[in-house]
Structures are given as structure tokens and as C-alpha cells.
């Protein structure tokens, strides 16, 4: 079987696989060619009956594609399936693909921006792609907007001029940080109906959000994952059963009518996979074994196949949660890196001012170098010269004057992790992998970042002239 895989920027890659190969092997080939190691955030997409379907990585390729004309390749699109926070991305190529995918979604009209934010994002895209305003492009990146084109061009040019001297990498990372705060950043959007009203259903990291299907549509309903008891599929309809709001209230049923059976299956799968990836501490084996009928509904008549596919076809396609994915990617990326060595110069003073405690954790390198006041003056790590995509304020469980930096859980290994989003530093790597909640504040842990306490030999550093794009 021949395949043509398109990147979000339109570049195509071709490869050949036999039909008995699993979808995972197709994704592995694409990621290997592009140098992507953080594979769990990506997927391959194709269209079936006007519905966008994710290629199931656990099922054979022959069961997921209709017969094709000889010599013509099956077309797939490499896209981001799970949009995590930018500070979780540890690889340059992954951040580039996130940027390209978001840029494409903006051009397709997925997001509703204010004019001020639209101008800011367009200027950052222009700086990332074309460089300084001294050599402006013939046309600026545009997307669907209700504002006059000439007015937008003038405002974007002014904002672009203010970014002069900013590197393309910093401009792109600033773009990602702004986009990560949008409501639909991590959401997969579906068109549906509830009764007679047309709506947009956004399936994201926290649950479902239902919007009116019009420009700047209002939020009609928000359904958290914790409120969902179960879901049922009935042809083109998805039925969501919610918990009682009170003891006297009845069960709440929400019916979403999709355009086709394939679209209904797609939104059902998206809800379950987003819940598993973002909201679960681990993926149970019973979930991994959840499978469909032995053959897909479109596989009839049987003459389409030279032989019937054997084995079960899995419905869900999540092997790892968000935290498990981060840990797995970390090990793959830093397996042979010297930067992961842990030095025991615990809680030193800020490398810039030399007065305050170093309490800001750089991402993705994981170095503690600056205090919260000085970090705003630069975005380059003084230890490894790595570009800082974002930073996080951390809080130490131990007294800075005490040299006993043993893990607060096992009291044996050294502390070398920070919890996100709370920022508490109190555990070693081994113990952190088993904690669903922070033991100090009980906040649900989205991912655990490694901390490398390594300080430069000379105090200070020339960071005044480095553009700061993060807060």
C-alpha cells in the first residue's frame, strides 16, 4: 500500500507499507523521517464519508482503508492529536509541528480572537517566518476575520516593527504560549445538533464545551469529565448520561446528532481518548482491550478483501496518559545526554542579582538559575544556552538553609523533580512517577518536570539584550 503523508505546511512524504502492518508503524516511519521523538502527541488523519478520522495505531492498515485505484497512494495528514502545554514540549521539531498545526487551524477559522490578539499573533507569525520588518513580506499571514484587510495590514505592520531583533524561535515560542491560553487550544471540534439547534462541540482536556454554531457563538453548556457517567452510540447520535445535580433531580441526558455514523464514532472516540490522556492517572488494561466488531461496517461486500482480517479491531488508541507520555519522551530524548546529571548545589542564589533565591525552573532544560524578578530580563538559559520556551515558579518543601535534601516520600533519594502546575519541589523521580496528586497541596499533577540544579561558574551574564516573550 502506498501512502502520501502531508505536513501542516503542505510538504508531502511518500512511503510504502504492506496492509498487515499496524498504524503505529506508519506513524513511526513519518516521525523517524522528520526526527520527532515525542510521538504520543501526534496522529495520522484521513477522510471517510466527509468525516475526519484518526488512523488507529493498533489496527492493521488494510482494515482502515477502502480499496484504492492501483498506483494512487492513500492520503494521510500528520496532525497534533493531543495539544499539551508548551512547557511540556522538550524537542524543537515538536514545537515546530505544534506551531504549523495551530497556524493551519487559525487559517481555517477554528479560533475567535479579538482584533488586538489577532494583530499580535499575525505579527509573531511574520517575525517567525520572515524575520525583521526591515525586509517585510509581500503579504502578512491572514485568517478569517471580520475586520477590513487594509486596517489589519497597517496594524500588523506596526506590531511587526516592534519585534525587530527577535529571533524566529523566540517569536514562535511566544506564539505558542499565547495560543495555549485559548479555550479551543487543546480541543477537537465537531459540528452537531442538539434538538433543532446547530452547535459546535469542543472536546478538550477538561471535558466537553458546547457553543452556538455561529461567529463568536456563545458557550451554551460545559460538561466536565467527572460529570459523565456513560455514553452510548445510536447510529448518528451520541447520548451522554450525566450525574444528578442533586438527590431529587433526574439523570441528565444530552443528545448530540452528528452528520453520519462515522462522525458519531469519531466524537465518541475523541471524548474517551481525551479523558484517558488528560484526566486519568493510568490507562487500565480493560480499556486497552476495548475493541470493535471483527470487521468494519464498510468492509462489506467481502470481495473487497483477498482475505478476511484476523483478530480484534481496537476502538480506543491511547496507551499512555499525559504524564506517562512526558516521562517516556523525557527518557527517549535525554537517554544519552550529559545535561541530566544532577548536581547538589541546592538552592543557590540567583545567578543574576546574587541576592534572591533561585526559584524559577526553565523549560525544557530544567535548570534553576534565576529568581522570579530577573527571569523577565532574558529567555536564554545561562547554563546550557538553550532557548527558554517558558518558565515556572517553584516552591521548595525543604528549608533553604538545610543541607538535607532527601525526598519527602522515601527519605532516601535526592529531590530532583517539580510538579506541574503547582510547582512544588519535594520528591525524587522514582516516587513522583507514582503520585497522582501533589502530597503538599493535593493538586492533580499534569506532568513532572526534572530539575537540574546546575549553576554557571561566573555570576551574572549578558541577558539584558535578549527579548523576553514570556510571563
Automatic annotation (TrEMBL):
Domain FERM residue range list: 1-282
CDD domains per record: FERM_B-lobe
Keyword annotations from UniProtKB, A to Z: Metal-binding, Zinc, Zinc-finger
Keyword RNA-binding applies: no
InterPro entries given in the database record: Band_41_domain, FERM/acyl-CoA-bd_prot_sf, FERM_2, FERM_central, FERM_domain, FERM_N, FERM_PH-like_C, PH-like_dom_sf
Domain RING-type: 350-385, 407-442
A Gene Ontology molecular function term of the record: ubiquitin-protein transferase activity
GO BP annotation list: ubiquitin-dependent protein catabolic process
Domain of life, per lineage: Eukaryota
Name of protein: E3 ubiquitin-protein ligase MYLIP
Organism of origin: Acropora cervicornis
Amino acid at each position: 500500500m502506498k501512502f502520501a503523508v502531508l505536513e501542516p505546511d503542505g510538504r508531502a512524504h511518500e512511503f510504502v507499507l504492506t496492509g498487515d502492518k499496524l498504524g503505529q508503524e506508519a506513524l513511526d516511519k513519518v516521525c523517524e523521517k522528520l526526527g520527532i521523538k515525542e510521538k504520543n502527541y501526534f496522529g495520522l488523519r484521513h477522510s471517510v464519508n466527509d468525516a475526519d478520522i484518526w488512523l488507529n495505531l493498533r489496527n492493521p492498515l488494510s482494515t482502515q482503508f477502502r480499496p484504492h485505484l492501483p498506483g494512487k497512494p492513500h492520503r494521510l495528514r500528520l496532525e497534533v492529536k493531543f495539544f499539551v502545554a508548551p512547557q511540556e514540549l522538550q524537542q524543537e521539531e515538536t514545537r515546530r509541528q505544534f506551531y504549523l498545526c495551530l497556524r493551519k487551524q487559525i487559517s481555517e477559522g477554528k479560533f475567535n480572537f479579538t482584533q488586538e490578539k489577532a494583530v499580535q499573533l499575525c505579527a509573531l507569525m511574520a517575525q517567525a517566518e520572515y524575520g525583521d520588518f526591515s525586509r517585510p513580506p509581500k503579504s502578512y499571514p491572514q485568517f478569517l476575520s471580520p475586520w477590513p484587510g487594509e486596517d489589519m495590514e497597517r496594524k500588523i505592520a506596526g506590531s511587526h516593527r516592534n519585534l525587530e531583533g527577535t529571533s524566529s524561535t523566540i517569536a514562535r515560542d511566544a506564539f505558542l504560549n499565547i495560543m495555549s491560553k485559548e479555550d479551543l487550544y487543546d480541543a477537537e471540534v465537531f459540528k452537531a445538533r442538539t434538538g433543532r439547534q446547530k452547535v459546535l462541540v469542543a472536546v478538550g482536556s477538561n471535558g466537553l464545551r458546547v457553543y452556538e454554531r455561529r461567529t463568536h457563538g456563545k458557550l451554551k453548556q460545559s460538561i466536565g469529565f467527572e460529570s459523565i457517567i456513560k455514553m452510548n452510540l445510536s447510529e448518528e447520535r451520541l447520548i451522554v448520561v450525566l450525574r444528578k445535580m442533586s438527590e431529587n433531580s433526574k439523570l441528565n441526558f444530552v443528545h448530540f446528532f452528528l452528520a453520519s455514523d462515522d462522525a458519531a464514532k469519531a466524537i465518541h472516540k475523541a471524548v474517551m481518548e481525551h479523558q484517558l490522556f488528560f484526566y486519568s492517572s493510568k490507562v487500565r488494561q480493560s480499556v486497552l482491550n476495548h475493541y470493535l466488531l471483527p470487521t468494519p461496517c464498510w468492509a462489506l461486500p467481502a470481495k473487497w478483501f483477498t482475505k478476511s482480517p484476523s483478530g480484534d479491531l481496537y476502538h480506543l488508541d491511547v496507551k499512555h496518559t499525559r504524564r506517562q507520555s512526558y516521562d517516556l519522551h523525557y527518557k527517549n530524548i535525554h537517554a544519552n545526554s550529559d545535561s541530566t546529571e544532577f548536581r547538589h548545589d541546592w538552592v543557590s542564589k540567583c545567578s543574576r542579582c546574587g541576592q534572591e533565591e533561585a526559584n524559577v525552573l526553565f523549560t525544557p532544560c530544567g535548570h534553576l538559575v534565576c529568581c522570579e524578578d530577573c527571569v523577565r530580563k532574558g529567555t536564554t538559559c545561562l547554563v546550557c544556552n538553550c532557548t527558554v520556551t517558558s518558565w515556572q515558579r517553584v516552591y521548595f518543601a525543604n528549608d533553604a538553609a538545610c543541607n538535607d535534601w532527601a525526598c519527602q516520600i522515601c527519605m532516601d533519594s535526592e529531590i530532583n523533580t517539580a510538579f506541574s502546575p503547582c510547582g512544588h519541589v519535594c520528591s525524587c523521580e522514582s516516587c513522583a512517577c507514582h503520585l497522582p496528586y501533589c502530597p503538599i497541596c493535593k493538586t492533580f499533577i499534569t506532568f513532572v518536570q526534572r530539575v537540574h540544579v546546575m549553576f554557571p561558574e561566573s555570576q551574572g551574564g549578558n541577558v539584558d539584550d535578549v527579548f523576553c516573550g514570556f510571563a
